[in-house]
Specification:
single chain; alpha/beta; 2 domains; 6-stranded parallel β-sheet; two-stranded antiparallel sheet; 13 helices
């Protein structure tokens, strides 16, 4: 360095060479698979959605009504969970408001033997997998560990550690392949795994490691990223500079972007990916392009970091309004059906509200009950010591 050159100051401001481009966060772009437009009209077949149209051919009007019913029920469960937390009955509640179609579409595409690994917001997937909503409320009330009959539901525990469940899912999928439950041609045996996370989860190391393991082992797993555009208060451009579905390119397997507010598209794309996985063709990454219309959790205030105009723009894309408009225009449902279904949702809400409020606290010794699948000497000894300790207070 010459005498007239000045070394850069360590305290000088740092500029970022690459700035994320301006974008419309309501526009999924030309690569997004969609069958229902925001106003409920059917989208024409295009090069983008035509490869998945076959997966809707056997979805009749009755099945579509069931999908809409699921959307309505799941939203009502979610609203009740939020209200119960505000009333002091739950410690926390993470809302899925706006993401119902992404979850119901994916959940309905799964077969009974397919295993789901959720984050902590997948109430709609839990509903489709037959997990009673009361069990979800019990976990957030703190009276159970979130356990349910996994042999019946094949729905893993909620995972609060962001992205951790992605590696769990790949490990389970690798095990299914090694057990010979992939590619047999038996629809009641061939198994796939779904791993759910949000856009914020894609920035975690566990997520990227799971893509590596899934790729090199050709694991039968579908990564399902619900891009709701906010990782708590951090927008997408703090998480990535390319859409999540394109991340799959670098790992050697397909990535698909789907309109996550379109339940038909979410179902068709997920069904396609699951059939690939079950037949031994390996992993797929799906990005469900959606939006979190509520708060991240009941501990969050989204007005601190996003504008109301953004929320209003996404309300116009509401998944329930969209499906209702479509089925009404097709003469499949009418106002009376909607009113009856909303009444059933109110009855469900009353049931789970009462169940939540009357849940007994578990006995203390239950903390030892499910540590291991089989009896364990150390746990039995610790349980006995704890029982003696508790007995000491009875006098």
């Amino acid at each position: 360095m010459s005498d007239d050159e000045v070394a850069p100051s360590s305290t000088a401001p740092v500029t970022q060479d690459h700035q994320p481009p301006e974008r419309d966060i309501t526009d999924g772009g030309p690569d997004m698979v969609q069958f229902l437009a925001a106003d409920g009209t059917r989208v024409e077949l295009t090069a983008t959605n035509e490869p998945y149209a076959a997966y809707l051919e056997d979805v009749d009007q009755a099945a579509m009504k069931d999908m809409l019913r699921d959307l309505i029920m799941v939203r009502r469960v979610d609203a009740e969970g939020f209200a119960l937390q505000r009333q002091g009955e739950l410690g926390l509640w993470p809302s899925l408001l706006g993401q119902e179609a992404a979850q119901v579409g994916a959940g309905r595409a799964m077969r009974p033997q397919d295993y789901a690994f959720p984050g902590y917001r997948e109430h709609g997937v839990a509903w489709c997998k037959g997990v009673p909503p009361e069990n979800l409320l019990g976990m957030f009330r703190g009276v159970n560990h979130g356990g349910w009959d996994s042999n019946e539901n094949n729905f893993h525990l909620y995972t609060i550690v962001i992205g951790n469940q992605m590696l769990h899912a790949v490990g389970y999928a690798m095990g299914a392949a090694r057990d010979g439950d992939v590619g047999t041609g038996d629809p009641d045996r061939d198994t796939a795994v779904m791993a759910f996370t949000g856009d914020g989860g894609t920035a975690q190391g566990d997520f990227n490691e799971s893509l590596v393991f899934a790729s090199v082992t050709n694991a039968p797993v579908v990564f399902y990223v619900q891009n709701n555009h906010w990782a708590i208060s951090e927008p997408n451009d703090r998480q990535f500079t390319i859409p999540p579905y394109r991340r799959a390119d670098g790992f050697g397997f397909p990535g698909i972007r789907v309109d996550g507010n379109d339940v038909l598209a979410s179902y068709a794309v997920t069904r396609h990916a699951l059939e690939r996985a079950r037949s031994g063709q390996g992993p797929t990454l799906i990005e469900a392009f959606t939006y979190r219309m509520g708060a991240h959790t009941t501990s969050d205030d989204p007005t601190k970091y996003r504008i109301s105009a953004e929320v209003d723009a996404w309300k116009a894309k509401d998944p329930i309004d969209r499906m209702t408009a479509y089925l009404t225009s097709e003469g499949v449902i009418d106002d009376a059906w909607v009113e009856q279904t909303e009444g059933e949702a109110d009855q469900l809400a009353a049931r789970i509200r009462k169940a939540c409020q009357t849940m007994p606290d578990p006995p203390h010794e239950e903390m030892f009950a499910h540590v291991y699948a089989e009896p364990h000497t150390l746990i039995e000894r610790e349980s006995a010591l704890f029982a003696d300790y508790q007995a000491g207070f009875e006098d």
